[in-house]
């Protein structure tokens, strides 16, 4: 049975709310859960002064109680069964940092039904089930806060929903997966191979429980869907978000991109185009001089282009323990300001879950990736035939693809190997695929070895 061993919650001098401490139940005591405990404890006074109330961790649910006790300390009740926690009457807000979309979803919905606010770092859960969860929260007058779900240390949800609230947002483009950016940086700058760089990212606590989410672009797609939801007041069907990761990226393409003045980054792109939105994740060439090309290691960077503020750039750690806890605790402080759990009136004053009131959330059509137009990078296997080399750009042009830059790039490690690389003008993906298929059939070559999109982000 849960015994609250914490001191009683009488209002103190710093308690401007008259509500006493905000009582927190924590599900998950791993990387993010432990960081949250450390920040709550170390900055307790500062947090209370800023939030107007003390924030007190009273219960934690974890599979390994022995390990969890070392994380949360002696004054916090521990349970193995998270259902006890989400139903406990002495908890005002549930912090869900266990991850996954099965049990986590059921627990979050139960916490909401019990009138508790929820703070979560679970991007998969909200990208895939956000509509249902936000509707339940609105119906129960509670808040689901999720700053930690996107680009951990960077307050980008707050920036989109509050700081930039007066703007029409045209596009949000970002490096939003710390693990894959760390891997790409290690491959490009230190010559590590993919597997070694991934092992290092996992050891440092950056990668997801299933690292294929990081390297296949799925984690970045979850985050980009949440960015699009907030930028455009959108209900984004996650199944329509294009996700391509970095597992098939040949380091030779990083060398070729550099020769053209670009770097390759795994980029999440959310953009409004006519009456649709683009929401996509894939390796992308960005100019070396752009802010986004400078985002290295496990850092994240997000470029937000707006009508009034113009372009803004947001930068910070993209993965880690206290870096994520920073956002979790800031959300707890927002919840503390909302009032008592179930106080629908005050919760309703908080910014809406997807930046516009629920009735204004719109299901924008998401453009299929083949219909998205952009410049492209092409790498062709070398063909030792000057006549053909001169011919194929003209041939592509005749099929609607203008080749703007063309270079011959030798391979740094394999001197016998070289390739033609080229940048195209803006062309839809489907049209480019068709033209390239006709090229290899019509002229007998050359075969294209790699295709990536380019974002110039002027
Ligand atoms: N695995 C994630 C990343 C953690 O590498 O970005 C932060 O969401």
Concise structural overview:
With 458 residues, this protein is an alpha/beta fold.
Description:
The protein folds into three domains: 22-152 and 322-360, Rossmann fold, CATH 3.40.50; 163-317, Dihydrodipicolinate Reductase, domain 2 (2-Layer Sandwich); 371-454, Alpha-Beta Plaits (2-Layer Sandwich), CATH 3.30.70. It contains 16 helices and 17 strands. It is α/β, with parallel strands linked by helices and 458 residues long. α5 runs parallel beside α6 (123-140), α6 (123-140) runs parallel beside α11 and α8 crosses α9 (194-203). It has helices spanning 31-42, 44-51, 65-72, 82-86, 103-113, 123-140, 156-163, 178-190, 194-203, 212-215, 218-232, 251-259, 321-338, 344-349, 386-398, 429-443, and strands at residues 22-27, 55-61, 77-79, 93-96, 117-120, 144-145, 169-175, 242-243, 262-273, 276-287, 299-306, 311-317, 373-381, 403-410, 418-424, 427-428, 448-454. The protein is elongated and about 80 Å long.
Count of individual helical segments: 16
Q: What would CATH call the architecture of the largest domain?
A: 3-Layer(aba) Sandwich
Sketch the major β-sheet. 11 strands, mixed
What integer value in Å does the Rg equal? 25 Å
Shape: elongated
Mean pLDDT: 91
List bound small molecules: L-homoserine
Q: Percentage of helical residues?
A: 25-40%
Assign the CATH class of the largest domain.
Alpha Beta
Which structural category do the helix and sheet elements fall into? Answer: alpha/beta
Identify the quaternary structure here: single chain
Named CATH topology of the largest domain: Rossmann fold
Q: Going by CATH, what is the homologous superfamily of the largest domain?
A: NAD(P)-binding Rossmann-like Domain
């Amino acid at each position: 049975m849960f015994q609250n061993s914490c001191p009683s919650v009488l209002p103190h001098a710093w308690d401007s709310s008259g509500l006493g401490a905000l009582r927190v139940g924590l599900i998950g005591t791993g990387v993010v859960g432990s960081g949250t405990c450390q920040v709550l404890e170390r900055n307790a006074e500062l947090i209370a002064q800023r939030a107007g109330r003390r924030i007190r961790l009273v219960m934690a649910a974890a599979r390994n109680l022995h390990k969890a006790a070392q994380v949360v300390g002696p004054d916090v009740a521990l349970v193995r069964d998270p259902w006890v926690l989400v139903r406990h009457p002495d908890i005002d807000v549930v912090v869900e940092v266990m991850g996954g979309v099965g049990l986590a979803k059921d627990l979050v919905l139960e916490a909401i039904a019990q009138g508790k606010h929820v703070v979560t770092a679970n991007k998969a859960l909200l990208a895939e089930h956000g509509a249902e969860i936000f509707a339940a929260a609105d119906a129960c007058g509670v808040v689901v806060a999720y700053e930690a779900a996107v680009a951990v240390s960077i307050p980008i949800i707050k920036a989109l929903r509050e700081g930039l609230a007066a703007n029409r947002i045209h596009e949000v483009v970002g490096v939003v997966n710390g693990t894959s950016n760390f891997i790409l940086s290690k491959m490009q700058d230190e010559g590590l191979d993919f597997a070694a760089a991934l092992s290092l990212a996992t050891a440092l606590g950056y990668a997801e429980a299933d690292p294929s989410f990081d390297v296949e672009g799925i984690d970045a797609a979850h985050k980009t869907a949440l960015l699009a939801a907030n930028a455009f007041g959108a209900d984004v069907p996650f199944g329509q978000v294009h996700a391509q990761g970095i597992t098939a990226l040949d380091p030779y393409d990083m060398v070729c991109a550099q020769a053209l003045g670009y770097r390759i980054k795994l980029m999440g792109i959310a953009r409004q185009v006519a009456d649709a939105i683009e929401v996509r994740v894939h390796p992308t060439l960005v100019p070396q001089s752009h802010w986004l090309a400078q985002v290295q290691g496990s850092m994240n960077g997000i470029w937000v282009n707006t009508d009034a503020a113009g372009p803004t750039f947001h930068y910070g750690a993209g993965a880690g323990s206290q870096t994520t806890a920073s956002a979790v605790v800031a959300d707890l402080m927002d919840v503390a300001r909302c009032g008592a759990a179930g106080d629908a009136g005050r919760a309703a004053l908080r910014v809406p879950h997807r930046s516009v009131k629920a009735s204004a959330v719109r299901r924008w059509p998401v453009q299929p990736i083949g219909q998205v137009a952009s410049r492209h990078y092409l790498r062709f296997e070398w063909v030792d035939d000057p006549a053909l080399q001169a011919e194929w750009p003209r041939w592509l042009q005749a099929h609607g693809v203008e080749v703007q830059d063309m270079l011959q790039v030798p391979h740094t490690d394999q001197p016998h190997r070289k390739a033609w690389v080229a940048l195209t003008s803006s062309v839809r993906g489907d049209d480019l695929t068709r033209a390239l298929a006709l090229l290899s059939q019509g002229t007998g070559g050359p075969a294209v070895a790699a295709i990536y999109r380019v974002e110039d982000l002027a």
